[in-house]
Design goal:
By secondary structure, the chain is an alpha/beta fold. It has two domains: about 170 residues, FAD/NAD(P)-binding domain (3-Layer(bba) Sandwich), CATH 3.50.50; about 150 residues, D-Amino Acid Oxidase, subunit A, domain 2 (D-Amino Acid Oxidase, Chain A, domain 2, 2-Layer Sandwich), CATH 3.30.9. It has nine helices and 20 strands. Bound molecules: flavin-adenine dinucleotide.
Length: about 375
Amino acid sequence: MEAYDAIIVGAGSIGLPTSLALAEAGMRPLVLDARASLGQGAHKAAIGGVRATHGDPVKVRVGLDSLATFANWREERGDDIEWVSGGYVFVAYRERERQAFERLLREQRRLGLDIDWLDAPALLERVPDLEREGLLGGTFSPGDGHCSTLLVGQAMAAAARRAGAEFRFGEPVRELLIERGRVRGVRSERAPYETPLVINAAGAGGPALAEMAGESLEVASELHEAGITEPVAPFLEPLVVDVRPSEGSANVYCYQARTGQVIFCLTPEPPIYGEDLAETSEFLPLVAARLVRLIPRLAHVRVRRTWRGVYPMTPDGSPLLGWSGQVEGLLHATGMCGQGLMLGPGVAALIVRMARGELDPDDHDTLRAWAPARKFVGEEVLR
Ligand SMILES: Cc1cc2nc3c(=O)[nH]c(=O)nc-3n(C[C@H](O)[C@H](O)[C@H](O)COP(=O)(O)OP(=O)(O)OC[C@H]3O[C@@H](n4cnc5c(N)ncnc54)[C@H](O)[C@@H]3O)c2cc1C
């Protein structure tokens, strides 16, 4: 039986940075994915937004750690992932959003986030094409940004391979090999592998993997759609989020990629659950109406393609990260909701510290907040 220091189940937004972090920490990980190539799960559906601007202090901390990886990728590793530090803008058109953002701002700043409140004239200087009527202002966090999801996935896998990680595709994991309450390996559809450490980075498949250890995880497949326009001349620098609820949706967000296309996404309300990844006829009229209301100039830009993907959603909107309660050596890193790409590198760094037993007090906080078996109460404001 081939033996590895760690087996990561899933080559997605979490498995990729984790393979890199473990390999660079001197371990020899094997990544197994059921699909034919990397990032074919939720990863390739992500639109590429990366922020540390969250409502939950733990996410801000992990988000800041991750953000540095994306922002410094080109300088440190050489590949162009089409990163742009354009910032994030959360716009407020109603008093309730203004107050909520301003309340969050104090805590976000205390945690080291570079974020400001801009009144309407200042915000319009930064995003001149925003709808002016009723605009009260918005938060602006210049360090946040966006990148190409596909390029960053490829770059992470290439760097992980150079550092000694191996990848095998078309190999669904069917069984956890367990002896006396401890993981000894996994059996994929093709072969058994020996390892003392299995990382459940299976995204929406996380509960099925946990089930193999007799454990149940609360992750639901929440369906979200996104789209991309033709490329147009630069006119929009930050990623703009509008959290005003509207018929059929909770929020809408978009940015302009460095290559000119506008990439956009909408959060359906009520949420839609399931496995059907076919894009719907309802999405485009719904999102187009919202986007044109927010940025009227978008009425003149043509949409090229839409797609649908999964948020691996937990009841409170925060990830599940921690050791299995059933089996030693099994670590769950799933339930990343709508933020797996942006949290990936920070989660990966924390997994390395867990594997080495080198946790600091902040890590203990994070693991308490994100414990897979926690009681789910409330929901993050900026989920
Ligand atoms: C439309 C849309 C837009 C989004 N935009 C953003 C964004 O801008 N920024 C952001 O941070 N996030 C975004 N997200 C969310 C993000 O895509 C997810 O949070 C993230 O991809 C989850 O990462 P993951 O590694 O947990 O899962 P995945 O990326 O799905 O990876 C899990 C992998 O595990 C494999 N797998 C599962 N079970 C098994 C098994 N038994 N054996 C072997 N392999 C298995 C799957 O094939 C899959 O490749 C978006 C999501 C959608 C749908």
